[in-house]
Amino acid sequence: MLAIDVEAPPDQQIPGDCNRDAVLDLSDAVCIFGILFTGRPSLFPCGNGLPDDPGNVALLDMQPDGVIDLSDGVRILQFLFAVGPPHPLAVTGNERRGCVSIPVCLAGAPTEAPCYRAVTPPRTARMW
Ligand SMILES: [Ca+2]
User: Fold this and answer.
1) Where are the beta strands (DSSP E) in 30-110?
2) Which of 50, 57, 66, 90 has the fewest other C-beta atoms within 10 Å?
3) Cα(2) to centroid of ligand 1, in Å?
4) pLDDT at 57 over 90
């Protein structure tokens, strides 16, 4: 069966995917630590890029206390390596790659959207 890769709506995000490479992994903890402590990268991925932007809080507040801080990067490491809890918005059973709607964190340009999905085109009736 033919499947076509199409871009998901721009509000589709992988909870915790700070660097927007479409997977939650060690690099996302490094991304959070980097922004908080070294300024590289310089901004969080949503909205105005600041840690208090509602999109960034929704996307990266791994242990939901309403702020992005050291504990959120640590929580990613606990989830990945010590059987810690997943992001509260994570897709059960697909916590590292599952996309969810986070409307307050729009992806920006479509080419930057981290979530993709495969769809099968609808069947069309033959006319002959
Ligand atoms: Ca990532």
Assistant:
1) 100-101
2) 66
3) 29
4) yes
